[in-house]
Input
Amino acid sequence: MSITRRQFLGLTAIATTNLVIPKDSEASEGKYATIIDLTACDGCKDEPVPLCVKACREYNNDRFPEPQKPIQPYWPRKGYEDWSDKRDRIDTLTPYNWLFVQRINVDGEDLNIPRRCMHCDNPPCVRGCPFGALTKQPEGNSVINDSLCFGGAKCRDVCPWGIPQRQAGVGLYMKLLPKYAGGGVMYKCDLCKDRIVKGQEPACVGACKARLGDRPAMYFGKRDEILRIVKERVEKEGLHVYGDVQNGGTSTFYLSAVAFDKISKAISEKKDRIPMATNVKSKLKEDINPIGKFLIGSTALTVVAAVVGAIASKKDRKEE
Ligand code: SF4
Ligand code: SF4
Ligand code: SF4
Output
């Protein structure tokens, strides 16, 4: 697929508009939050696929990537990430599976932990993307714009949980410089962005409620109300919380009767690729220099603009 000079200039304008030094508003905590209650989740033991996972896959199916093959690694890389032949994997996060249920055993007790993006209050993925392809929405969710993403995976590098997943052979770079720029597109949970702006709950939450009735393992609601429930359950039931302070705070609160340092240890002993460390500090200050990000993004865009502009001019001259 080719891209015209006009299309490219439009895309550059969009990218440049997004390419700003982060504003304080990006650090807002957002309107909504979720509770994931590990005392209620049984991993949908009687179902072939956990219903929350099934609902997520069905709801987002039309947005899953369809790579152009054969896929080529872009210079100087020697490899690429291709999950397109492993679309059935439900035991981890992939570009085709934005939620999975992590299964561990702690002191003889089986635990099922639904895992997806935590939707951090001040997300380093948003601040770290050199192309401004990620945004923090007023609803509290962080969202990847797949039409701007070059698949450089900076968002995954700075995410303490390694949440965004890359698929090669798709995205803007395929139209620009497939051999020399970009590694694909990153994918992750966006908290069902189109549903929540309409006041609907995320598909996974609805599926869990449909199965478990008035004691579901997932609750979604206004942040104030969710925080009130978390506080009340911690006080009354002595539950442990995860997600309230990790990475500077998130809008996903796990509740558990088992301490999270034990859960974290069990996950790390299993060598699961999606960790759950308890001592997660925000990487914003130490790892991400917003000026550096601005310069990297500007430079990259300038180089791409120059090359594509030259190609487009040459093509235009030939057509005259
Ligand atoms: S969160 Fe609900 S739907 Fe998902 S695995 Fe647990 S019980 Fe099943
Ligand atoms: S969990 Fe990771 S991908 Fe999700 S908002 Fe936080 S830093 Fe970004
Ligand atoms: S909120 Fe939506 S996108 Fe995120 S895991 Fe649930 S169903 Fe999937």
